[in-house]
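Re-run with default settings, no changes from the original entry. Doing this only to confirm the output is reproducible before filing.
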Amino acid sequence: MVCGESSMIKDFVINSWDGIMNQWYNPLKYIPDLQVRHMILQILAWLWCIAFSLYFTSWFVFGVTVVAHFVLIAAIVVTVATFRISENVYRFKEGYHSMGRARGSVLYRGKDGTVYKVPLPPGDPGGEHD
């Protein structure tokens, strides 16, 4: 094999992979919603698992691939839902601080072991900040 042929084969494999699996190169790149794009790729993966399983006439393999893809898609849905809920509830984009904090002071322990209370300023949002 000539050195140039190796590079051509490598380029062919990489381009083939990108054309099917890379969301920034395949025709699904025109779908603006990333989650919809990913779901369509999952459905296509399921379709191909069904096609290959039925082609090789193995209903057992078909059942295993259906269950595996269902579990994978369910895990993705739970993850996305968790991220959406945490975004809406905790509002990390607005900065890290505890909104609606009920406490008005912080407890510290001195070098001799005694506990003392330090009141917080009225406008202090809580959490770590400058």
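The radius of gyration is 27 Å. Residues 31-94 form one domain.
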